[in-house]
Each structure stands twice: as structure tokens, then as C-alpha cells.
Amino acid sequence: MTPNPISVTFDIGEGRMVTIETGKLARQADGAVTVRLGDCVILATVVANKEPKEGQSFFPLTVDYQEKFASAGRIPGSFFKREARLNDYEILTSRLIDRALRPLFPEDYLCDVQVLVSLISSDPEVMPDAMACLAASAALAVSDIPVQEIISEVRIAKVNGEMVVNPSRTQLAEADMDFMIAATDRNIMMVEGEGKECQEEDLVKAIELAHNVIKIQVKAQEELRDKVGVKGKREYTKPYRNEELYAKITTFAKDKMLAIASKASAKNERQEAFENLLKETTEFLGEEIPDEDKSLIKFYFGELQYNVVRDMILATNKRLDGRGLEDIRPLTMEVDYLPSPHGSALFTRGETQSLTTVTLGTPLDELLVESAASSDYSKFILHYNFPPFSTGEVKMMRGVGRREVGHGNLAQRSLKQILPGSDYPYTVRVVSDILESNGSSSMATVCAGSLALMDAGVPFKKHVSGVAMGLISKEGKFAILTDILGDEDHLGDMDFKVTGTKEGICGVQMDIKVDGLSMDIMRKALDQAKRGRLFILDAMYQCIPEHRSDVKPHAPRMEKLIIDSEFIGAVIGPGGKIIQEIQKTTGATINITEVGKTGEVSIFSANKESLDQAVAWVKSIVSVPEIGDVYEGTVKGIKEFGAFVEFLPGKQGLLHISEIMWKRLDSMDNVFHEGDKVKVKLIGVDPKTGKFKLSRKALIPKPESNPATKPSGNN
């Protein structure tokens, strides 16, 4: 069949034209499009099974974003020279797409859906992640897969005080705000990003600007869908339901469920009570109910629990653990908890606990962050671990999951806003191990990470805290919840995490599960989140008010020297001879990086004596000798007219026989031996040869003349 491409084109501002095309590539997929901006081309495909798997009880959506290295004319650096498992950047982009698409599908749609998005042509100035969700949504729009709405996603950055839509890579490097926003033409669906202590109103303005741009992109997808001729969505098999059974369960369990929810009990006690009530409900229904209804008991019990708890909170402004809407659970925190790490903190908020460590390393420990378009090194690394025991569960340990990558990224991008700049020579690794979890362990990671960085002596100027917000809304009423529990996250309409300092926002991650979230509710949620953030910050400052003045005694010592680039070769030496000798003799580790016309020499050592010795050695190599300075030199060679003395590494001068002492010497016999140490003064430089002239006698007091030998003065 001859390809019949169909396309639409629209302007995203400043003459940047985006083209969405379908009908040419991947025509056996249920939906396939390419999205192009400049030289950046993204291919998105979507395929859905016609029927759900037998017994399927959840919506199995899979989203994978991958960058083909050929798109940038590069060969992967792996041993196999092919694209392997998704890297963290690709996982994070996949999550951005997934979180925006998932609410679009009907709740009773349980067929497997696979969305694959690939970067097939790269533009060095176009950020592909800002267009990946547009491509995925467009592929769904031109298919018959039963999505309820069309969405898109854009990046908003603040560059030099101006809001920019989908900034270039160069612009983004200078931005002090970077937010990704997904929305339909009516509602905001997802927000994620970071800011250098931006204000709440700045975030609201960014969301409003993004929504206006997204409406244009949704309209373009609708135009493409109409051109393709998509008339409707496919019919699908809906799961079996029995409303009569739901009514029986409600009659028996509703009041008992409300009593459990109102008891203000701890997580484990509450879970056990709900489990026992489920058993009672099952026994009440009896064994005679049909097999197909037995599988529905747990489903309807969950539906009832969802409605009972939400109604209780809206009616009483009291929550499952008895708190008010804005109350934060009890906080305990401790720094210097572990003796061996370079910094550590234990942060507990209610039933959520993070044990976080900080390790200081050398530039050799920097992390290579590679994508199709770039390879960069990061000096700040944050890893988040969520073991199954933290929720009292037994699960296979199969490596880091996407959730852990996403939560770790939110904490990392929040803390990095306050980290020292590139002049700070240490590579910093933060590891958060979640030991208990009942609500927002990522926000506990932010708080524990801030405390641990202060404890490690990193020049971390301000504390950063975080709080997770929730929303419950029904029939015009709503309740905004501060510091949500795990159950409240599951039952609520919004999961809204905000991090920041006392001065402003550093990070945001928001997922909205309900239509019609107004900007007024958004502003109220941000204002309430600020109050919660400040409350936690006050407690953190009481724990450790500022970073330690120095690193721990067992942490590596460090000093950075900036030298002229012409001296880099002198420090390294032929074949690395000099730098290897310094490292072998002192035990220090030296890393040299050329930056423009200067060299950055980072020197690390396990103890101060070793560090000082290495620093002095490097300084002596790069120092420029000045006439009048005094040096401790080493005799390198002896001639009949004097001695050659190395007074600085690689720098020798002539100590002439006449400059050794005030007494006249007839020869150099037995005056010096090679290797002797001698203190000398630089007295001049030969203008023709540039050779250094040294003197020893200039450092020796001139002896007084003997009066008996003086001439009489009479002729």
C-alpha cells in the first residue's frame, strides 16, 4: 500500500513551526505519528489489545521513551554498541508521558496499551522531552483506542525575567525556572519542575501560559484526527459489575467502615481493622453467591472505602489519623547519626522515615549523564531507595524501579538549587534509604538530604524542606490536606508535592486526578503548602542551624588552585612524571581540568598534612620567581665556576662561585655535593638568556673589615 501522509503545522511562537504527520511510518500500529521541530523528529506509536486478559483488574498501560543514538550521529558507548535499558533521563521522560496519559482512559478500560516514543532525529537546540507527550497524544488521537480527551505538554522556563515556551537548550541552561505542564484544553493534568526559589505566583503564571499554548496544540491534533477521518472509538469489553451486590456491601459495611475511619488510629491498626471488616463482609454475603460475584467483593469494598473516607473528611475536616486539614505529623530529626559517612541525618515525620547519608568524592567520581544529544558530567548525585520492608511488605528486589528514579529526581532537583556552584570541587553523593513509609517519602528525602548536607560541611546556605499536599473535592466542596498519608494519596484527587526554602519554591511535582481544578484552588493549595513548608523548616533550623564550618575529620580534604594554562604541562610533567611523583610522595589525589585559559587543579587527601604538602608542591611549580625572594634549593650540578641549584621544581639557577660566601673561593672542591640543601636568594635574571642568578652570600651578614689592614690614609 502506498503511503499517504497527512499532516498539520502550527506555530509555537517566534516562527518555530511544529509539524505532526501520520500515514507514512509504522502503519500497522493502531496509531503512529511523527512530530518535527527544526531537525528534531519524534516517532510515537500506540497499540492496544482488543480484549483484556482474563481476570485483569487494573489498567495495564506501558510507556517507553527512548533516544536513538543515530539520531545525533553517534554510536553508543556501551560494550555492545547498541541502545540498552532506558537511562534515568529516558525513564523520567517516560514518566512525564505516562502520568499525563493515564487519566485519559476510561476507568473500566482494562486492555493492554503500549505507547512507544522514539527520538529518531536530534536537533542540538531542541529539547525533545517537551514534545514527547504531544507525539504520544497525537498517536492516540489518530487511533480508535478509546481515550476520552486529547492532551499536550509544554515546558515553560523563565530566562532573564521572561517566560519562554519550549526554550532552546542554550536558553534552558540560563533559566531560573523550568516546569513541564500537561493539560487538556479544559484542565491541568500534571506539573513537574524546579525553580531557583521562585514565588508561588510565578508558578501560577507559568501554568496559565502553558495552558494557553496547549490549547493550540490540542486543536492541531483535533484537526489531524479529522483529516485522517477518525469517526469514533472502538467498543471494548467492560468488566462484569453487579450493583445489587454493591448495595448489599454498602448496607452491611458502611457504618462499620466509618467507625474505623473516624477512630484516628495508626496505619497498621487501621489496615488490620479494614481487613477484618472485609472478612466479615465476605462471611455476611455467604458462600452461595456466584463465583463471578466473589471476585467483586474486594473491588466494591474498596469503592465503598473510597467514598466513606472522602465524605468523612469533607464533612468533619478530620482525617484518618485524627489530624486537622493543615496539621503536620510529629517531626523528629537527628544529624551525625552514623559515625563513618561524611554526613548523615535521620528524619522521621509520623510513620515516614528517611536515613540519608552524604559522601564527598573527587572529580574522578563525577557521574556521566549521556543522552543522544549530549554527554555531561554531574557533580551532584542523589539516589533514593524504597525497600519493601518500609511498608511491611515482602517483594522481590529487582533493582531500582521507575518510581524510585522519579522520586529521587524530585529530591535531587530540589536540593541542587542551593548547592554551591562549579567552584566547589567535591563530587557529592546523597543516598536516601526509606525505612518507613506512610505518605511522601520523597519529601522526607528532601528534608533529610538538606540536614545531611549541612552535617557534612557542604557550604549549603539554606535548608530546603518539602511537603505533600492532597485534595478531596465533591459537588462543589473541597478540602486541601497538608502532609498527606498514603491512604489519602490513594483516595484523593490530587498529589501535589512542593519543596523550597523560606524564600521560595525549589521543586514541584503535581498529578491531578479530577477535572476542573481552578486556579483559585491551585493558589490556595500553594499557600497552604508554603505554611507547611515553613513549619518544617523551623524544626530543621533548630536541629542544625547552618552547615558545619569544616568537613568531618575522616572526610577527604580538598583545595582547588587556579593556574595559568601554560603551567598545566609543568604540573603534569613529561608522560605524567611530575604529577605521579607528587601523588606517590604525598598520598594526595590530583585532578587537573583545563577551562579556557586557566587550569583548575583539585587536590584531595585523607589528611591535612598530605594536602598541605601537595598544595605547596604544586604552588612551587606554578609560582613565578621574583627577584629578592628566598628559596630552599637543592644542588643539582657542580662546575668549576659555581653550582646549579634547583630552587623551584623545574627551575634552576646558577650560584656563581663569587656568590657563595663573602670570602673569596679559589675552587669548588668540597664546597657542595650534589643533593645538598642550600638557602639562596634570587638576585637577577640574565636579560639575554633568561637564566636565573642566585646568591648565598646575600643571606649571610657581611663580615666587618680588620682595622689593622686598613690603609693609613697618608701618602
TrEMBL record:
UniProtKB keywords: Cytoplasm, Magnesium, Metal-binding, Nucleotidyltransferase, RNA-binding, Transferase
Gene3D superfamilies noted in UniProt: GHMP Kinase, N-terminal domain, K Homology domain, type 1, Nucleic acid-binding proteins
Function of the protein: Involved in mRNA degradation. Catalyzes the phosphorolysis of single-stranded polyribonucleotides processively in the 3'- to 5'-direction.
Family statement: Belongs to the polyribonucleotide nucleotidyltransferase family.
EC number: 2.7.7.8
EC top class named in words: transferase
Residue stretches of biased makeup (Polar residues): 706-715
Cell compartment(s), UniProt: Cytoplasm
Residues covered by the S1 motif domain: 628-697
Cellular component terms per the entry's GO annotation: cytosol
Cofactor(s) listed: Mg(2+)
Catalytic activity: RNA(n+1) + phosphate = RNA(n) + a ribonucleoside 5'-diphosphate
Lineage: superkingdom: Bacteria
UniProt protein name: Polyribonucleotide nucleotidyltransferase
InterPro entries: ExoRNase_PH_dom1, ExoRNase_PH_dom2, ExoRNase_PH_dom2_sf, KH_dom, KH_dom_type_1, KH_dom_type_1_sf, NA-bd_OB-fold, PNPase
Gene name tied to this protein: pnp
GO biological process, one term: RNA processing
Annotated region (Disordered), positions in chain: 696-715
A GO molecular-function descriptor: 3'-5'-RNA exonuclease activity
Residues that coordinate or bind Mg(2+): 489, 495
